[in-house]
Amino acid sequence: MMHLLRKELSELVTRQMLISLVMSFIIISMLGSLMTNVLTDEFTDYGTVRMIDQDQTEFTQQIIDKLQEDGYTVQTASDFTEGVNQYHWSEATLLPEGMTDLLLVQHEQCQVHSYTLLKTTSSVSLSMMGDSSTQTVVNAINSLLSDEYLQGDLDFLENPIQTVPYTQANNRTVQANPSLILSSLSLFDQLMPLLLFLLVVLTAQTIITAIAAEKADKTLETLLSSPVPRSTIIGAKMLAALIVALVYALTYGMAFLSTVVSTFSGNSGSVDIGETFSEVVATRHYAEELSLQIPFMGWVGVLAQLALTLGITLTASIILGALVEDSKNTQYASLPIMLCTMFPYILSMVSDIRNMGAVKWLLYCIPFTHTFIATANFRFHDLPLFFGGLVYQAVFLAFMVVLALKLYSSDLLFVHRSIFAKKKTTENE
Q: What are the two backbone dihedrals, phi and then psi, of residue 121, each rounded to the nearest 5 degrees?
């Protein structure tokens, strides 16, 4: 039993396996550290309240003093645009002119404006929409009203402040809830990276496994020795792998959409379908006003980047598959592609890669990154980055195709196999 166990372990625990484990541990640890820094940057300003005081009264100054006493740092600006341009605000609370008179003299409900700047459609941004500092300001106003000014049984004290949300993007502002706008956009912006990740991983694994099987069965040498042009052989392999990967991706995509639809239909008893539809139409209208919709030519560009990404995946898989001696090592051969896909995929889901400082330039070197952020580039009008990524992917693909053709047009594959066979024969002797 022990002899058989040692034999099986010796076949499974190889040098390639140990190297891949060490590399995976190092890279995943780096990814975890990077995500921690990203999330820390996203949540670091929770103790800061950004305020636009248009009323300029003693009462509004006491609101600021109250917030500072509670441990908050208060930043002020004349308007939201100034705060965004000079202080890089992403949200702020506006105290309108006449607020003090409405609350303290007329004893009427007053509106406080909440401004939010949309810069990304990542899931972290979606989750942070409900954590606006506006509620902190409202709580401070309510505390001052109840404790210091109006100690009577007044009806309006039950709800003295009404919050009116405003959303800004692409230098345009609309009166709308940013969470609803972001929700209507993020469904596709999060579904596309998932499908792209599946396409890349499945395509790489499929084609590397197929080439490794051909090498193990010794049919690859026969195929490459045939009078068929090797460019045709490579093209056929790429097309076959692409078809299989598309079938997998479409299946997973349809399953995902089916889950979403069944979730909503299953809760139809508690959800007003008409009201939900009206909200979707309204948010699409607001998205158009904010110029967040992607035009037709934009979708053409996004599909072009997707095609280039798949082309890079296919050619890289063909090259890596040629270096695999047997089917047991296919998972190690596909590891570089998987890791280069995992980094931009995860980071694009939790944050905005375009605002990640020096790290973004390292991510831009990975061609897959530009496809993951393609829709965000169009929604927020970062067209130089989009077209720069498109050109970079095209050049990268051309280089990979030339490398693959040279590899399969030479005798390197056969020499590589003969060297290993010679060493094995020598060892046996």
A: -115, 25
Residue of 37, 40, 120, 42 whose CA lies nearest to 348: 120
User: CA separation (Å) from 212 to 222, 323, 325, 423?
Assistant: 14, 9, 7, 20
What pLDDT digit, counting tens, does each position of 182-194 carry?
877 776 777 778 7
Average pLDDT over residues 219-247: 75
What is the C-alpha separation between 230 and 406, in angstroms, rounded? 10
Q: Which percentage of the chain shows pLDDT scores above 70? A: 71
Task: Give a three-class secondary structure readout of 390-401.
Answer: HHHHHHHHHHHH
Compute the residue count for the chain.
429
Contact 374/187 with Cβ under 8 angstroms?
no
Domains of the chain, residue spans: 48-175, 190-263+273-428
Query: Which amino acid is present at 348?
Result: S
State the amino acid at position 339 in one-letter form.
L
Phi, psi torsion values for 168, nearest 5 degrees: -125, 135
Output the CA angle 343-338-320, nearest 5 degrees.
135
Domain 48-175 is in which class? alpha beta
- Comparing 224-233, 373-382, 400-409, the range with the smallest average pLDDT is 224-233
Could you tell me the CA-to-CA distances from 389 to 15, 305, 329, 425 in Å, in that order? 36, 8, 32, 49
Q: What is the pTM of this model?
A: 0.77
Q: Where are the beta strands (DSSP E) in 245-354?
A: none
How does pLDDT run across 333-352, given as a tens digit for each residue? Answer: 777 888 888 888 888 887 78
Residues 157 and 107: their CA atoms lie apart, in Å, by 9
Alpha-carbon distance of 167 to 176, in angstroms, equals: 6
Distance from C-alpha of 283 to C-alpha of 278, rounded to nearest angstrom = 9
Q: What are phi and psi of 380, to 5 degrees?
A: -110, 20
Q: Which of 273, 305, 326 is nearest to 392 (CA)?
A: 305
- Within the chain, what is the greatest distance between any pair of CA atoms? 104
Residue-wise pLDDT for 350-359, tens only, equals 778 887 878 8
